[in-house]
Fold:
Amino acid sequence: MQVKVKLFFTLRRGRSRVVDIQLNPGATVKEVIINLGIKPSEVAIVMVNGHYSNMEKQVDDGDIVALFPPIGGG
Structure:
């Protein structure tokens, strides 16, 4: 199955802004993150198809996963 991943801010370093990846059926968001060479601890916010989610969520063919790092500011 194919999933589109949108990376934001520091997660883009050395990667494209949008990545299409192939996964086995039943893969989770955490597997998407690891497949991209990102440490799960580097991801603070996960969205799947525009809805807040978590790393244990199974993704389906055609899903859009957005990943955000921790964001600081004041």
